[in-house]
Amino acid sequence: MLSDIHEASSGLVARLRLAGPPCNAFGTDIDDLTVMVTYETPTRLHVVIEDTATHQFRLPTQFFPRPIGEEISAGDSDLAFNYEPSPFAFWITRKATGDTLFDTRLSSLPTAPTKALDGEVLDGFQLVFEDRYLQLTSALPLDANIYGLGEAVATSGFRRDISQNGTIQTMWARDAATPEDENMYGSHPVYLEHRINATTGASASHAVFLSSAAGADVLLTTPRGAKQSLVQYRLLGGVLDFYFFAGPTPIAAIEQYGALAGRPAWVPYWAFGFHLCRWGYADLADTRAQVERMRAASIPLEVMWNDIELYHDLRDFTTDPVGFPPEDVRAFIRELAARNQRYIPILDAAIPHVANDTDEYLPFLTGFARDVFVKNPDKTTFVGQVWPGYTVFPDWFAGGVEEWWGEAIANWSALGVEFAGLWLDMNEPASFCAGSCGTGADLTNTTPAVVFPGEPGNLVTDWPEGYDAHRWGTSGNISVDGLLTFGDSTAVRGSALAVPASVRRATRDPNDPPYAIHNGWGDLAEKTLAPNATYAGGIVDLDAHNIYGYMEERATFRALRRIRPDERPFLISRSTFASSGHWSGHWLGDNFSKWSYLRYNIQGVLQFQLFQIPMVGADTCGFNGNTDEELCNRWMSLSAFVPFYRNHNVRGAISQEPYRWDSVALASRAAIAIRYAMLPYWYTLFADVATNGTPPMRALFFEFPDEAELLSVDLQFMIGSNVLVAPVTTPNVSTVTAILPGRGHVIWREWYKHLEVAADATHNSVELNAPLGHIPVLIRGGSALLLHAQPAYTTAETRAGPYTLLISLDATGAAFGHAYVDDGISPPDTVGAIVNRTLRFDVSDSALAISSSGAYIITQTLTDITVLGVLAAPSGVRLAGGLPAVFTYEAGVRRLNITGLALSLNENVRVSWA
Q1: I need a surface site. Which of 121, 542, 570, 653 has the fewest CB within 10 A?
Q2: Could you tell me where the beta strands, DSSP code E, fall in 1-62?
Q3: Strand (E) positions, 640-730?
Q4: Dihedral through CA 775, CA 780, CA 781, CA 782, nearest 10?
Q5: Are residues 362 and 213 in the same domain?
Q6: Do residues 875 and 789 both lie within one domain?
Q7: Which top-level group of life is the source organism from (predicted)?
């Protein structure tokens, strides 16, 4: 029951009390709550339901800054908060249309227990607020279009399943090798909903973010016989802290979420190059050999990585004195730098526990002395077990932990590992036992707790997916001729959702909370910290578990800024949380060398655009298991068109560097050449996301929100507004059927020959040729793309060459584009702000105008301009001032080529043809 309601122009504050006796279902009911509603911006509404005594855990504002003092009058908001005081319920509406976007009244849902998800009974939808169980349910349109809620490998696709079988998205970070339809490395309680009015055809998107680190189940389902679907939150504590974003376009809603959570970090230019790694490069000679073999094969390599083989005794911040002598590592990294290449090592979250007084491992000794490690409830040090044996875990809430962490990183670099970026792994955090397994154990026992892949007892012996040993024999790699390289089988999506039912438990132990979320390991302590592990200030892991990786990313980013203040940090992390993109990128984890995971690659990249972590990609060709030539060929082509491009595989599996097969080498060279030509476009998109939150990678409906046929498309994607990619995602084919957005009102031209591509008028689709080694790429009419004219071996060499401009006219003869240019390395918040130049390209009435502004000096010139869609040969081409230019015209493709230019991009330019 709501009482003591104090309304103001910008919202309200009220008391919320239990209307009857407590039920204490999965905890102790809290009978005195506060409801706060704030209209923060025209498109953002904030609703908080919290315990008045403020004992429940909240995201600490010093680590998760939220806007302070941002409020507007309710009359200026696109959204409206509506409520009923008794029994309390609220609903959010969009003023422009009257649509209800979030609704806890639930009058249309069944009142009796009903089955909805396999094995899960829905029994009541009322608001529950207990110390260890919170529940809130909102009605949704039947079979709503929901995207987000992760991290997930969802067999239903990018669009989440909200049928009767539905979705249970569990929020509990865990070390699990990319399981289907289960919780995994990250926690992102935000979703985008998109609606299309069946009568008018008009569309609108909004987003909902629960700002909470609590372990949780989020259910998307449709109760049997119901006329509405629902989303239900079940949390293991914390408060209900919701933000609603009005959109109304998908891109606008994502941008609005980014403005709150924190926009992504600026990315250095070199990060868009090709990266190579594997768990299994035995020593520095092996690592160096990969670099030389890549160069010998003329496959561009920008960044070389090392996994845990780098370490001495598998310990962070060390190098193996035999396999990776520190001075040799330093020399190797400097050799790379001399050739415009870089080096990234791995950094695990767990720190080895020193076992005796003669062990001088400083990261542990100094950390223990400064009291920066996670503890047990009795204040002893929590001891887990990871690669080096018994380990401790940094307490990111402890005073001085950032200084200690930064010193360890700086010392590592000074001793020879002069890294360009860092790879944060095992930071869920991962541990090979349940709870503080090292407490009271023999800490001198450093026997690995698990058998490494490739060792006896854990050999990687599975055949590549689809390999037919009877047909091809059992020796060597098969050759690829484009036919039947996958045997006679076909690849399919995963199985339907099947989850165990939740149960009520009588215990109040943090290690065994009364409500059992659907954690894939079952026990919350399995392979990680115990939920009662304790951080500084008395915070328990049950409350803060999901932000451990985020806290490490923040500390590492800030340490790198102190160590190298003139360079942008570059981090790739496994465990992420809302706001992680402000500090780090992400790779999609330990995936599998299977065609289904090539497809999940696309879904995963699109998910993380919603989460404002745009620098993302999968382990190309697959991590676990053995890949094959055809799969690796297609995957190297696909990954060239996603932001983070790295080939990485498991110890003991067959080697999969792209030079290993001639066909994969050829496909890689071709795809990387396109990627490097497009680097100015990629870089501009990432400047846009860093400044505005605009996602670089886009589902088709992001750009064409009124087209209902696009809502489930997740095997094609767009790069920005202007490039569409339709990769091959199944074996044994040489064509791909692509949906062309725009319903015939948009011109699409293919990248390679610039021919127009016409879709089938009925289905808006077209069959595109895609022989092995070729990936279909289309350019949207109405676009102007600044490109590098001469893709080279590294991004630095590529960038040193001239520019070219590719213009694809729309049906009216117009086009538009823009480009952002700077030095590619300086942080944007250095003194005097980042020096940059912004270019704008406007084409209309057979003329191109280039507007240039900013202080950065572009030394490269624009040497040629290609204009597609010119209907007739012009009589001449002229520059500003009437100077003629050299040109040719190709009537068959309606292409105008303007060549022999040397135009400065530091000043305005005009080019016309008639």
Answers
A1: 121
A2: 2-8, 11-17, 32-41, 44-51
A3: 646-647, 697-698, 717-719, 723-725
A4: -140
A5: no
A6: yes
A7: Eukaryota
Peptide bond preceding 87 in cis form (omega within 30 of 0): yes
Interacting residues of 801 by C-beta distance below 8 A, sequence separation 6+: 788, 789, 790, 792, 860
Cis peptide before 514 (omega within 30 of 0): no
Among 576, 600, 616, residue at a domain's last position = 576
**Total domains present in the chain:** 3
Domain of 233, CATH number, reads 2.60.40.1760
Give, in order, the Cα–Cα distances in Å from 744 to each of 713, 764, 765.
18, 7, 10
455 tagged catalytic: no
Residues in the chain with pLDDT values less than 70: 107-124, 469-485, 487-508, 829-834
The CATH number assigned to the domain holding 906 equals 2.60.40.1180
Distance CA 260, CA 832 (A): 25
Cβ atoms within 10 Å of 481's Cβ, excluding its own: 10
The reply to whether 230 and 354 lie within a common domain is no
- Tell me how long the chain is: 914
Residue 529: CB atoms within 10 A of its CB come to: 27
- Which letter, b or e, does each residue of 656-670 get, where b requires 16 or more Cβ atoms within 10 Å of its Cβ? bbbbbbebbbbbbbb
Judge whether 59 lies within some domain.
yes
Q: Are residues 441 and 352 in the same domain?
A: yes
CA 308: distance to chain centroid? 24
Q: Cα separation of 808 and 777, whole Å?
A: 14
Q: For residue 448, with 0-12 CB atoms within 10 Å meaning exposed, 13-18 middle and 19 or more buried, which class applies?
A: middle
Task: Mark whether 428 is an active-site residue.
Answer: yes
CATH of the domain at 564: 3.20.20.80
Q: What is the pLDDT of residue 476?
A: 40
Check 428, 657, 703, 864 and give the catalytic one: 428
Q: Are 242 and 257 in contact (CB under 8 A)?
A: no
Active-site position among 590, 628, 629, 864? 590
Q: Which residues, in sequence order, are bridge partners of residue 81?
A: 92
Number of helices and strands (H, E) in the chain?
A: 14, 49
Residues 426 and 542 occupy one common structural domain: yes
636 token code pair: 């190297």
The pLDDT, as a whole number, for residue 116 is 64
DSSP letters for 722-746 = TEEE----SSS-SEEEEE-TTTTSS
pTM (two decimals): 0.95
Count of other CB atoms within 10 angstroms of residue 263:
21
Whether residues 248 and 320 fall in one domain: no
Residue 320 maps to a domain: yes
71 vs 62: CA distance, rounded Å: 21
Gap between the terminal Cα atoms of the chain: 73
- What tokens does 17 get? 């009390």
Which tens digit of pLDDT belongs to each residue from 678-734? 999 999 999 999 999 999 999 999 999 999 999 999 999 999 999 999 999 999 999
In a shared domain, residues 111 and 243: yes
Cα pseudo-dihedral 670, 671, 674, 679, rounded to 10: -140
Q: Are residues 149 and 214 in the same domain?
A: yes
Is residue 127 domain-resident? yes
Do the beta carbons of residue 318 and residue 311 sit within 8 Å? Answer: yes
Question: What would the pLDDT profile of 646-664 be if each residue is shown by its tens digit?
Answer: 999 999 999 999 999 999 9
Spatial distance between the Cα atoms of 225 and 886, rounded to a whole number of angstroms: 70
Is residue 652 within 8 A of residue 460, CB to CB? The reply is yes
Distance CA 324, CA 286 (A): 10
Helix (H) / strand (E) containing 242: strand 240-245
Q: Identify whether 668 is part of a domain.
A: no
Question: Containing domain of residue 851, as a range?
Answer: 783-913
b/e sequence 796-810, b meaning 16+ C-beta within 10 Å: bbbbebebbbbbbbb
429 preceded by a cis bond (ω within 30 of 0): yes
